[in-house]
Amino acid sequence: MRTFDTELTVRYGETDKMGVVHHSNYLLWFELGRTGLLREAGYAYSDLERGGFLLPVLEYNCKFHKGAEYDDSVLVNTVVSDIRSRAVTFHYECWRNDTLLCTGWTRHVCVDHDNNIQRIPDGVVEACRAYLRDGG
Amino acid sequence: MRTFDTELTVRYGETDKMGVVHHSNYLLWFELGRTGLLREAGYAYSDLERGGFLLPVLEYNCKFHKGAEYDDSVLVNTVVSDIRSRAVTFHYECWRNDTLLCTGWTRHVCVDHDNNIQRIPDGVVEACRAYLRDGG
Amino acid sequence: MRTFDTELTVRYGETDKMGVVHHSNYLLWFELGRTGLLREAGYAYSDLERGGFLLPVLEYNCKFHKGAEYDDSVLVNTVVSDIRSRAVTFHYECWRNDTLLCTGWTRHVCVDHDNNIQRIPDGVVEACRAYLRDGG
Amino acid sequence: MRTFDTELTVRYGETDKMGVVHHSNYLLWFELGRTGLLREAGYAYSDLERGGFLLPVLEYNCKFHKGAEYDDSVLVNTVVSDIRSRAVTFHYECWRNDTLLCTGWTRHVCVDHDNNIQRIPDGVVEACRAYLRDGG
User: Do C11 and B27 touch (CB under 8 A)?
Assistant: First the structure.
C-alpha cells in the first residue's frame, strides 16, 4: 500500500483571530493531497476534467486534535479508503512533525459536465487501488 | 423548539471552476448560522470571547445534495443537536427555496484563552436548550 | 448621482491572527458592492454572464485607515468612477458607523467567453452613468 | 540586488466560475513572497510578531495581464521597492513560465501589539536593503 505525502507552509491569511488556522482551510489542504495523489498515480485531475470526468465532493468530515499555526510546516498524508465504480473516498492526516493535527475524509462521485453520474475510468480505479488503505 | 434562520447571497468569489460554490465555503455559512443563533439567544459570540469563553471546532461534517450557484439566495437553518456542560453541537441545513442543498454539523468544545477546557456558562447552556432539536 | 449601499456582518473566518479582517477579504466585499449596484441598475451580473458579457478585474487597489473586526456591521458604498465603451471602474468605501475603514477601486474590461474584448452593452453603460461620481 | 523567488501550485479552491484564479487570492501569494523574503533575510515574520513588531498592510495594488489556471505552477518574484524607518513596500511579479501574469505591491507600516507606530528594527531595514530594487 502506497501513501501520498505533500508538505505545505501555513499562510498568514489561513489563520483566524483565535491565532490558529481557520477550520475551513484544511479542506483546501486535503484538495492538495488528493490532487497530488492522482497526479502521482498518473492521472492529473486537470486532465480528468478536460476528459469529461469530474469528482465533486459528496460529503466531508474533519476531526481536530491540535491547531496548526502560522508558518508551521504541515505534512498532509493521503490514502484511498474506498474505491468503487462511480465513487471514491480519500482519507487524510495532517501532521506537524510528530504531532497529529487532524484526520479527515472526502467522498466523491464521478460525473460528466452535465452532472450525470459516470463510471470512473478503469485506469484511474486501478491506479487508486495502489493507495487503498488496508481494510479500507 | 426554536430554529434560527439566516439568509445570504452567494458571492462570486465563493464559486470555483466547476461553476458552483466551493465545498469549503459552507463552513463559513454554518459559522453565520451559529453566530446568529447565539446572538438571538442573548449571547453574542464576540462577548463570549471577551469573557474568556471560546468555542473552537472539534469536528465537522457536511453532506451535499445540490450545489449552490453564484447570486443564489441561500437560507441557513441552524439548531442545537446536542448540548453538554463542556461541548455543544450545532446542526445546519442550507436551502435554496424548496431545494435542500446540504446538511452539516459542527461540534465545539469550550476552552479559555489558554486552551484549557471550561464549562459552558450556565446561561448559554440554558439559552441553547431552546434551540435543541427534538430527540437531539 | 446615485450611490449603492450594502451592509454586511464580518465573518469569523474573515479575520486573521492579527485580530482584524485579513486584507484580501475586502475584495469580496467590493464584489458585493458592484454586484448590488449592477442589480439595482437593472443588470444582474449573472444575467450579463449568461448573455456572454464578462467583466474580469484588470487592476485593483485598496487603502486602509482602520481594520474591521469580527461581528462588525460594515457598510460598503459603491459608485462608478469611470465608464467607457469597453471598461468600467468602480470605487468603494467601507464604513463602520462614522469610521471610514478603507477606500478602494477595481477596473474591469468587458470580454466574451472566448476572452475577446467587447463593447459593454449600451443599456449597461447608460444605467451605470446614473452612479457616476461627479468629476469621475 | 537580490530577489526572492517562491513557487506554488494553483489550488482548485482558488479558482472561480470564470475558470481562472479569483483575483483576491494573489494577495495570499504576495504574502508567501514577502514572508519568504523576510525568512531568507534572517527575520522570520513569526519571530518579528513574537518580538512585538507587526507589519499590517496599509495599501495594496495588483494589475493583471493573464489569469492563472488550476494546477499551474506559478513563480512569485518579490523585491523591496521602498524601505523607510517605519514603512516598507514590497513589489511582486507572478510568472507562469515566460508569461507575466500580474504585478502588484503592498505597503506596510510597522506597529506594536497596541497598534502604535514603531521603527522597523535596524537589522530588518539593513537586511531588506539587499533586496531593494534599483531606483526603488
Answer: no
CB A109 within 8 A of CB A115: no
Cell readout for C80 is 462608478
Taking residue B63's Cβ as centre, other Cβ atoms within 10 Å add up to: 14
Separation between Cα atoms, residue A37 and residue A5, nearest integer Å: 8
Contacts with B18 from chain D: Cβ below 8 Å: 17
User: What is the SS3 assignment for C84?
Assistant: coil
**pTM of the shown model:** 0.96
The residue type of D92 is Y
Interchain proximity A17–C12, CB inside 8 Å: yes
Burial of A9 (0-12, 13-18, 19+ CB in 10 A): middle
Is the distance from CB of B33 to CB of B45 less than 8 angstroms?
A: no
What CA–CA distance (Å, rounded) separates C66 from A113?
Answer: 45
Q: Quote ipTM for the complex.
A: 0.95
pLDDT one-digit tens code per residue, B25-46: 999 999 999 999 999 999 999 9
CB contact under 8 A, C23 and D24: no
Cell numbers found for residue B3: 430554529
Residue from A18, A22, A26, A28 to probe the interface with C (highest C Cβ count within 10 Å)? A22
- Find all residues with CB under 8 Å of B84, minimum gap 6, and list them: none
Contact A70 C15 (CB under 8 A): no
- Residue C51, classified by CB atoms within 10 Å of its CB into exposed (0-12), middle (13-18) or buried (19+), is exposed
Q: What is the 3-state secondary structure (H, E, C) of chain B?
A: CCCEEEEEECCHHHECCCCEECHHHHHHHHHHHHHHHHHHCCCCHHHHHHCCCECCEEEEEEEECCCCECCCEEEEEEEEEEECCCEEEEEEEEEECCEEEEEEEEEEECECCCCCECCCCHHHHHHHHCCECCCC
Q: Determine the distance in angstroms separating the CA of C135 from the nearest CA of chain A, rounded to an integer.
A: 37
* CA D86 to chain CA mean position, Å: 17
H helical segments located in chain C: 26-40, 45-50, 122-129
Interface of C with D (CB under 8 A): 18, 20, 23-25, 27-28, 54, 56-64, 67
CA-CA distance, A43 to A38, in Å (whole number)? 5
| The three grid cell numbers given for residue B44, joined into one nine-digit string | 453574542
- The answer to whether B16 is a known catalytic residue is yes
Min Cα separation B84/chain C (Å) = 24
Digit-coded pLDDT (tens) for C47-76: 999 999 999 999 999 999 999 999 999 999
Which residue in B5, B16, B82, B122 is the catalytic one? B16
Identity of the amino acid at D16: D
Distance from CA of D35 to the nearest CA of B (A): 25
Q: Residue A121, SS3?
A: coil
For residue range A106-128, what is the model confidence (pLDDT) as tens digits?
A: 999 999 999 999 999 999 999 99
